[in-house]
Amino acid sequence: MRNLHILKEQVVDFLEEQYDEDIKQIYLICEAFIQFHDTKNMEVAKNIVKPIWENISKYEQWYLNDIRVINAILFLFQVDIAIEFTQTVLVRLDTYKDFQDAERLKTAFKINLSLLLIKNKDYEKALTIILDSLQCDKKKMNYSILALHFSREAICRANIQGEGSTELLEKARQLLMIYDDYDYWERIQQEFNYYISSEINTTDI
């Protein structure tokens, strides 16, 4: 969160010197995340980035930068809308299939879509998305994204069949330990424990 505040200050300094629409969007996204962190109020955060969505939704064509922005604010949409919206974005990203950044964005949207489906308790569909992503993009993933795929697959299998998740979670742990990424391992554990709880509130983020 400290880095987010630093980024926001840098953006404010830039905007004071020169107005730029893309930089203004970064400011609004930073502010939305900071307010959500401080207040836990989704409506407050949603209202902050509402102008961004209103602008992008009018575009006939989405460029890669537009899609990056969409990915950043996706968490603010209702689950069913976000699922449908993400599926549309994945199709549109095929337009940029020759761009390396487009492939990274597609992987990001897939893993985000998996969490949206998990929140909606659609574990079968989430598992299909994760396995497809692993099959198509595994060799291109960095270690943290790959570990996240393993842990999300573990969540799905724990909820679908009640077994097979321990080995997957251990794969995520071993991978992160190679890079001494203890903080990320702790976050993955917390997410796993939350989504295999019998008392999941699907409106929580």
Distance between the termini: 16 Å
What characteristic shape results from the CA principal axes? globular
Give the helix proportion (percent range).
Answer: over 70%
Order of helices and strands: HHHHHHHHHH
- Which value, in Å, is the CA radius of gyration? 18 Å
Q: What's the mean pLDDT score?
A: 86
Question: How many H/I helical runs?
Answer: 10
Largest sheet: none
As residue ranges, the low-confidence spans are: 199-205
Strand content: under 5%
Quickly give the structural class: mainly alpha
Number of strands: 0
SSE layout and pairings?
Blueprint: H1 2-17, H2 21-39, H3 42-56, H4 64-73, H5 79-93, H6 100-119, H7 123-137, H8 143-160, H9 165-178, H10 182-195
Helix pairs in contact: 1-2, 2-3, 3-4, 4-6, 5-6, 6-7, 6-8, 7-8, 8-9, 8-10, 9-10
Q: Would you give an account of this structure?
A:
Residues 199-205 have low confidence and may be disordered. With 205 residues, the protein is an all-alpha fold. Helix 3 packs antiparallel against helix 4 (64-73) and helix 4 (64-73) runs parallel beside helix 6 (100-119). It has helices at residues 2-17, 21-39, 42-56, 64-73, 79-93, 100-119, 123-137, 143-160, 165-178, 182-195. The radius of gyration is 18 Å and the shape is globular. The chain starts with a helix and ends in a 10-residue tail after the last helix. It has ten helices and no strands.
Short description:
The chain is mainly alpha-helical. Helices cover 76% and strands 0% of the residues. The protein has ten helices and no strands.
